[in-house]
Design brief:
- It is a single chain.
- With 472 residues, the chain is α/β, with parallel strands linked by helices.
- The protein has 13 helices and 12 strands.
- The strands form 2 sheets. It has a 7-stranded mixed β-sheet with strand order 2-8-7-6-5-3-4, sandwiched between helices. A 5-stranded mixed β-sheet has the order 1-11-12-10-9.
- Strand 5, helix 8 and strand 6 form a beta-alpha-beta unit.
């Protein structure tokens, strides 16, 4: 494809994306396809001839889009906000168009230095001090794995340079609550800690926050058994109910035993753009690493996950390799982001942040977040004052956890009722919500925060919930 052919096709694709975004609200929220249906629309053999761009657009419409769950829909309330603001889409296009090779500063100085600038902008915008230095990962899962590898070497005195964890005299332990994201357990296992060395700390039954007395007991028990506490992962806005672990107390406990604390604020980190929400991660300055995802509630298109550390020198010592073919005369004078994480190569992700912050503006983003908080509070109020409806967890941000409890239903019958009405809504395509278990029973999570969701959409959802639950 020549630049002129790209220009013509690119204009057509931008028009298609704009039209697609304009019609999202009219589309079923949940993909209306059966397993294998999308795959069956494609030939089993690769294309043998050049395909006209118009044909690709046709196939996008008829083969791909029906198999897309519309997380940009104003009626999407599932999982977490996964916004992809069009301003950041432009940055993503620019990144792909430039086609930079991000394996070293020398391979693209602008990639490295724009990332340094934009990540520091984000540090300032969420109120973190100058002691923090960051980079952009693909997801919080990768950031958590990186953090636990850094914690492993902090506790193991850089055992990677000798026999690794197999050569240590005492097992290294990791602590987190049952509210922690599943990626925390996965990261701990991949980092080599072993399932027997993971400690799930009890949570407060009401708030779902980690109980610090239970954490102290677990640490003391391990010390008595000859184990070495290595890392604590604190959930700041857990996936299930947006619970906040008591970070200030956790870091104080960790400091007594030189335990690494990773602050996992994947979704809720966006709330820290609002000064009035920053009390929710009080103590964050004393943790050792932080991750949060602008590609969720804030709206920077995937994959844009921020990872901050207080001591980049420690991280670099853990992660760095320096083969001869990557060495250059500027080594030691510049940031080499290949030494800040797992992959060697990286995309020019910072352009997505730069474009969104510049084209949308920080104050407009903050106004949208406050709108979402108000809409969630309104929905919570409706639930509380309506007979047979119940809030099953405190509303700390924009996630409202509810259950419809008709008189006479309990246990398995109530679980069946909950799944029946939420699945009826999801399968209809009118809206989408995530059922989840809390204290062993099913409930429904309403995650408010899609960029296009206005108050009247939340009102529409509430009416749909009441009607469907009543009918079922």
């Amino acid at each position: 494809m020549t630049p002129e052919e790209f220009r013509e096709s690119g204009h057509a694709l931008i028009d298609w994306i704009a039209d697609y975004r304009k019609t999202i609200a009219e589309r079923p929220v949940r993909a209306q396809v059966k397993p294998g249906e999308t795959r069956a629309k494609f030939s089993v053999d690769p294309p043998s001839d050049v395909v006209a761009f118009e044909q690709l657009i046709h196939e996008l419409d008829h083969a791909v889009v029906p198999g897309v769950t519309q997380v940009q829909s104003p009626m999407h309330y599932g999982w977490f906000p996964s916004n992809a603001s069009l301003s950041s889409v432009l940055g993503d296009i620019a990144s792909s168009g430039i086609g930079a090779l991000g394996i070293s500063w020398e391979s693209c100085p602008a990639l490295t230095e724009v990332e340094e600038v934009t990540v520091d902008w984000m540090r300032q915008l969420v109120g973190l001090s100058e002691q923090w230095h960051g980079t952009i990962h693909d997801t919080a899962s990768t950031a958590c794995l990186t953090a636990l590898m850094a914690a492993r070497e902090h506790a193991g005195d850089f055992c990677l340079n000798d026999k690794g964890m197999q050569g240590l005299p005492e097992p290294l332990m990791v602590y987190y609550s049952e509210e922690a994201h599943s990626s925390v357990e996965k990261a701990a296992l991949l980092a080599g800690f072993g399932r027997a060395n993971l400690r799930i700390v009890e949570v407060d039954p009401a708030t779902r926050s980690m109980q610090t007395d239970a954490l102290v007991d677990a640490i003391n028990s391990d010390l008595s058994a000859g184990n070495k506490p290595a890392a604590i992962v604190a959930s700041i806005g857990s996936t299930g109910v947006t619970a906040f672990d008591p970070l200030k107390e956790i870091v104080a406990i960790a400091k007594q035993h030189e335990i690494w604390v990773h602050t996992d604020a994947a979704m809720a980190g966006t709330a820290m753009l609002l000064p009035e929400c920053r009390h929710l991660w009080d103590g964050v300055e004393e943790s050792d690493s932080i991750s949060w995802n602008p590609h969720k509630w804030m709206g920077t298109i995937l994959d844009t996950s921020l990872f901050f550390v207080r001591e980049p020198e420690h991280l670099i010592r853990v992660m760095s390799t320096n083969p001869s073919y990557l060495q250059s005369t500027v080594d030691g004078a510049v940031t080499q982001y290949r030494d800040w994480g797992i992959p060697l190569g990286r995309r020019f992700r910072a352009l997505k942040l730069w474009f969104q912050l510049s084209l949308d503006g920080v104050e407009a983003i903050r106004a949208r977040l406050r709108r979402d908080l108000q809409n969630a509070a309104w929905l919570a109020g409706q639930v509380e004052q309506t007979e047979a409806w119940k809030l099953v967890s405190p509303v700390t941000l924009q996630t409202v956890c509810v259950r419809h409890e008709p008189e006479g239903l309990a246990g398995e019958a109530l679980d069946a009722h909950t799944l029946r009405w939420v699945n009826a809504i999801n399968q209809s395509g009118a809206a989408f919500m995530s059922p989840s278990k809390l204290n062993g029973s099913w409930m429904v999570r309403v995650s408010v925060g899609v960029e296009s969701t206005e108050h009247h959409h939340v009102e529409k959802l509430w009416a749909l919930m009441q009607k469907t639950a009543g009918d079922n």
